[in-house]
Amino acid sequence: MTTEQKIARRKLTLLELANDLGNVSKACRITGYSRQQFYEIRRNFQTFGTAGLVDKVAGPRGPHPNRVAEEIEAAILAHALAHPCHGALRVANELALKGVQVSSSGVRGVWSRQGLLGKHERLLRLERATAERAVTLSDEQIAALERFSPEFRERHIEAGFTGDLVAVDTFFVGHFKGVGKVYLQSAIDCRSRYAWGRLYTNKMPVTAVHLLNTDVLPAFEAQGVAVKTVLSDNGREFCGRPDRHPYELFLQLEGIEHRKTKVRRPQSNGIVERLHRTLLDEHFRVEGRRTWFETVEQMQTALDFYLKTYNETRPHQGRGMDGRTPARAFKDHIPANDNVKEDNAQESSQTIAA
Hints:
Elements: H1 3-21, H2 24-31, H3 35-48, H4 70-82, H5 88-97, H6 104-114, H7 119-131, H8 139-148, E1 166-176, E2 180-189, E3 195-200, H9 205-222, E4 229-232, H10 246-254, E5 257-260, H11 270-290, H12 296-312, H13 326-332, H14 345-353
Parallel strand pairs: 1-4, 4-5
Antiparallel strand pairs: 1-2, 2-3
Helix pairs in contact: 1-2, 5-6, 7-8, 9-14
């Protein structure tokens, strides 16, 4: 028996006792009710029967009376999917132009009930809808997701084999006391996610060339593979007049195609930017707290040790990697028509490991 049923049974006992005794006051003293409560209970019983003996809880039992209508809530959720970065006030104003009247607090109420109160949650909802092919993305949605998720920027990067596309970029590591500004020149094979990196105190074209000439190209040549295309942003260390710029001239000399992102601001692609975020979270911030670096060479030694772990030990979670390490994927995706020599297989594996 529930609490409400017990209370209703007690009220019924009050009415029966008052009828048997013929004395309302005495029945109220025995059961613990007042005379005013007795007459109210009897009136409810005479009007509604036994249902009138059940206590009515204050307030609405259904949806809150100030809750927006279902069609308005659907319009708010649809707008949040189309424009996840809009704030509550802007959503209310945009919907008002479409004839849907709702306040900014009403918009926030809908977001709160659906777990979309923060922009981060609304972007995650859009990303899930994209993964499920539930929506066709607009330019605004694509731009928002690209700012929010470096992994999303990988969607347009297609590399068929090792060496098909190598992404390069410059990353500002920070300003270190006694060392000065430190920049990272990075390169990553977009098919295998095998990465290279060197630290410099400037970001000149010669440093970008040095990374390719010293680390990247020898690793591919040791496997008998040629680099087909290099993808970079439009930074000054990578782009310039083809007949004068050192980086452009070097790529021409090596017979490598140079692709650039089609934007005015410096921007590369999600694969290399995801590498930078991993290096920042797992290496630079960790080593910066526990090691006092006095030279760039010391920083490079620590970076080489981490990249060895990143390439050979750490399973990569990128698209198409299937949990393999970059070193394993590097070898798995070597094109069969490159005539890899068996006699330099051991030497090449040592070069990759280094």
